[in-house]
Amino acid sequence: MLGAGAMTNSVTEIRDTDLLFVIGSNTTEAHPVIAMEMKRAVRRGARLIVADPRAIWLTRIADMHMQLAPGTDVWLLNAMARVIITEGLVDSAFIQAHTSRFDAVVQAVAEYTLDRAEQVTGVPAADIRRAARSYATTSKAGIYYTLGVTEHSHGTDNVYALANLVLMTGHLGRRGAGLNPLRGQNNVQGANDAGASPVFFPGYQRVDDPEPRSRFERAWGVDLPAEPGLNLNAMFRALARRDIKGLFVMGEDPAMSEANASAVERALRACEFLVVQDIFPSLTSRHAHVVLPAACFAEKDGVFTNTDRRVQLVRKAVEPPGQARADWEILCDLARAAGYPMPHYSGPAQIYAEMAALAPRFAGISHGRIQREGGLQWPCPSPDHPGTPTLHVGGPINGRAEFKVVHYRPSAELPDGDYPLVLSTGRTLFHYNAGSQTRRDPGTVAKQPESFVQVHPDDAGPMGLTDGQRVRVISRRGAVDARLVLSRQVLPGCTWMPLHFAEASANKLTNDAGDTVTGTAEYKVCAVRIEPTPPT
Amino acid sequence: MNGMNHDISIRIDGHSVPARPGESVLDVARRAGAHVPTLCHDPRLEPAAVCRSCLVEIEGQARLQPACSFQASPGLVVRTDSPRVRKHRQVLASLYMADHRLADGLPQRSPAGSSLRGFAKAAGPLIQLHPVHSPRAGRPGDHNPYIGFDPGLCILCARCTRYCDQVHGAGAIALAERGRATTVSTNGGAGLLHSSCELCGGCVDTCPTGAMFDKKPSHHLPGQLRRVRTTCGFCGVGCQLDLNVKGGRVIKVTAPAPGQTINDGNLCVKGRFAYDFIHHQDRLTQPMLRDGDGRLRPSTWPRALERVATGLKRVQERWGSGALGFVSSSRCTSEENYLLQKLARAVFGTNNCHQCAAT
Questions:
Q1: Closest-approach residue (CA) in chain B for A217
Q2: Would the pLDDT of A326 be above 60?
Q3: Minimal Cα distance from B357: which residue of A?
Q4: Which of A59, A222, A241, A304 is the best residue to mutate to test the B interface, defined by the most B CB atoms within 10 Å of its own CB?
Q5: What is the DSSP annotation of A269-280?
Q6: Which residues of B touch A9 (CB under 8 A)?
Q7: CA–CA dist B88, A33 (Å, integer)
Q8: CB contact under 8 A, A184 and B235
Q9: Closest CB to A315 among B229, B276, B282
Q10: Which helix (H) or strand (E) segment is B96 a member of?
Q11: Which residues contact A106 (CB under 8 A, 6 or more apart)?
């Protein structure tokens, strides 16, 4: 919609921002050091508006907490848009100069009245109005979001609804003003940048566009497929249908981290040929036909691109254990074993140079430059370009930005009589994703030794469940045991679990209903019931 | 900083130096290259002006003034190295050392570049004073495995407590008790695991004496300590950190100084402490192939790579390229992601390639 799936601003701009609208991001736990910048901004006097179904740490220092019911983001955001439009707070000059189809959004949001928004989201109408006014009337206003926005079957709609707010207020292309997805993993941004995508070659060039494709064909000396491939969600569905027979998995544990993990594990077990390349044995590697030992980040060179598009160096400090080797070395040898003349790269610097020569956005970036100048933020089209701390200065990078009409669609699975509670899942401060690293360290384990499920006292009481009790959390897809934590962080009717514990893998419960555009699964909303764990 | 407006000038040690009104004399002096020692100063914190080490002479002021909190104003005349200032530093350093175990020799874990030691050394020959033995309490019952506190090394500069409050917002530690017994403690003296501490370790980094220390490192490994600047491998913030390597092992992680990198000298508990996985015994160390009897057994690289290549080729020949899938990793480097998609597209003819966290 804006032409780049990345933060529009830099992390260092947060401290100078006057209003932070943080939605679906538990920043202090998922991005602790960015949260320190937010705390600094608030200390300096910036206003902080948090929209989150849970009372997270940031809500303690926030001016407002809009505690919306999980999955009702579109209602909240469209109602905010309606306030901004009806109260004349839009930036008409920006809309006229840099956008299209605003009228369609004006029409579409007309039905999202405050009263009805309050009924659906649970957020008081007055709060929604106040948030909309604050956001629209503060020039240096930045939106920050994470997986609480995207991990829904309507995740793309949520992002579009946020982008509509940005475009109608013109809060874009200035220091502190913009739309900022905080990327969850060290190199999500870099992996996307490098073309680990079914739709894009490196540098966000579409595989079904003949111009870039022929460029890559010339560079790599082979014909390339023109049809977009399957996204991850679709890939695992195809695996379950036996349409995919051979799977190569590098540095992931899908049996643990994909939604509806039991189905994923069944599919992996049935896979005709499964290769896993990783640093630890995992739930997935148990089903592999070949397991390849890889080096971890401390044992190899390369780059990671962080959440603000900053390409930074990773440097080898120690040797990998035993016969483990860097993933790049393994992949080169594998390509040669399969008969492809992969160049004998001298190292990651040369690999990066090959990619940069094929991707205009990164053309000016090289290991040598980062070594000399520190991290470089793309777009960086030439060696004399300083990089781009703030995107869309002077207008959206792809020309006119198009407003998108979005309408509320309920989450794929809502609570009912059999499964009366909503479950959301997420990350905690002390652990990281599949837990393979942080569950092997004494302090993080001491702080958080086991899985838990947060339940509101109003729900636990009538069920006769007490704090600290072992309970079984059950969804249509599976059941796991965890310790019950009575908590007013969650709304009545809602529960929350961390995703780090293999022995109580929350993803056995989650719904793999995918977003229609990205395939991202609905990790944030599924229906469960909770019972005392039966005695063994 | 770029684009700074210097609309006034002040005199520092006889030289005219541009400054902004309201800027601290310390910042201006350091920019001008003057040496002004500090102990309680950290650019991320509001000035506390409690350690007295940055006192300078300012014309028109009867007493020496703390450079960290004294604001620049037009025509200010500052002397950072006058005999009076030097005498003050000598006396101050002597007092600190009398109430500090550094006087008995540096504990091994104390950082080599301990600011207090540097201050004392630069302050000239110390005046021998009777050692003071402050009854400052530690936290002997604190069993957290990451952060230690040695009250004998503490000078009560309160950098740790102010960092905990102002930067992290955790408010886990504060100055406690009174007078000579004043110490750094948690609410009720509880161990850090049972406090609001999030184990970020910022107190360790900011401590100028080594009183707050990292409990993890083993210094008994052979070889020189090496520091390797790299990018944290956990979340997407991209914090820069230094892997401290000794004897071929990562023994510690430290943060670059504030003001240099995107993380401004800050790290979280994972980035600073959760590195044991690197050398963990569970690491995969050899290629493994599934045998005829269905068990994974160790193999060699040539055999394993051959098996992977033929296994994927066989699927491709039998079912077509569309029957292959490649799952790439947001944990790996960009170069490795580039190579994996190149492998999928150029070698096996499929766009079924996606990274694990495309959200």
A1: B346
A2: yes
A3: A188
A4: A304
A5: HH-SEEEEEESS
A6: none
A7: 39
A8: yes
A9: B229
A10: helix B83-98
A11: A85
**B193–A446 C-beta distance less than 8 A:** yes
Cβ(A247)–Cβ(B324) below 8 Å: yes
Per residue in A508-518, pLDDT (tens digit) is 999 998 888 88
> What are the tokens at B298?
């160790």
CB-CB under 8 Å, A216 with B345: yes
Cβ B198–A338 below 8 Å, yes or no?
no
Instruction: Give me the mean pLDDT over the A484-508 stretch.
Output: 95
| DSSP E strand stretches across A127-173 | 141-145
CB contact under 8 A, A280 and B335: no
Question: Which domains, from first to last, does chain A contain?
Answer: 11-182 (3.40.228.10), 188-377 (3.40.50.740), 421-532 (2.40.40.20)
A43 contacts on B by Cβ (under 8 Å): 166
**Span of A2-6, A459-463, A504-508 with lowest mean pLDDT:** A2-6
pLDDT at B104: 56
Indicate the residue of A250, A285, A374 with minimum beta-carbon distance to B332.
Answer: A250
Least confident residue range of A192-201, A315-324, B112-121 = B112-121
* Position B187 pLDDT exceeds 50: yes
Residue A39 and residue B284: Cα distance in Å, rounded?
40
pLDDT the model gives residue B129: 87
User: Is the Cα dihedral B14, B17, B22, B27 positive or negative?
Assistant: negative
What number is the average pLDDT over the span B305-314? 98
User: Nearest by CB to A317, which of B143, B200, B243?
Assistant: B243
- Work out the mean pLDDT of chain B and round it to a whole number: 91
Element (H, E) at A377: strand A376-377
Among candidate residues A57, A24, A51, A73, the one with its CA nearest the CA of residue A127: A51
Asked if A254 and B327 come within 8 Å (Cβ–Cβ), the reply is yes
Q: What is the model's pTM?
A: 0.94
The residue of A57, A187, A199, A286 whose CB has the most chain B CBs within 10 angstroms, and thus the best one to mutate to test that interface, is: A187
CB B10 within 8 A of CB B25: yes
Residue A52 has pLDDT above 90, yes or no: yes
The maximal CA–CA distance of chain A, rounded, in angstroms, is 68
Measured between CA atoms, how close is B41 to chain A, in angstroms? 17
Residues of B in contact with A303 (CB under 8 A): 231, 333-335
The C-alpha atoms of residue A156 and residue A154 are separated, in whole angstroms, by: 6
Beta strands, E only, A33-81: 47-51, 64-66
- According to DSSP, residue A320 is labeled P
Report the C-alpha gap between B160 and B181 in whole angstroms: 17
Number of H helices, E strands in chain B: 8, 16
Q: Which residues of B touch A189 (CB under 8 A)?
A: 236
Whose structure tokens read 């790579």? B305
User: Judging by DSSP bridges, how do beta strands A421-426 and A494-498 pair with one another?
Assistant: parallel
Q: What is the pLDDT of residue B3?
A: 45
Q: Where are the strands (E) in B232-350, listed by range? A: 240-246, 249-254, 288-290, 296-298, 324-328
Partners of residue A278 in chain B, C-beta under 8 Å: 284
Instruction: Write the DSSP assignment of A476-525 as a string of letters.
Output: SS-EEEEEEEE-SSSPTTEEEEES--GGG-GGGTSEEEEPTTT--EETT-
User: Does the beta-carbon distance from B235 to A199 stay under 8 Å?
Assistant: no
Q: State how far residue A235 is from chain B, nearest Cα, in angstroms.
A: 7
Q: What is the pLDDT of residues A80-101, one digit of tens each?
A: 999 999 999 999 999 999 999 9
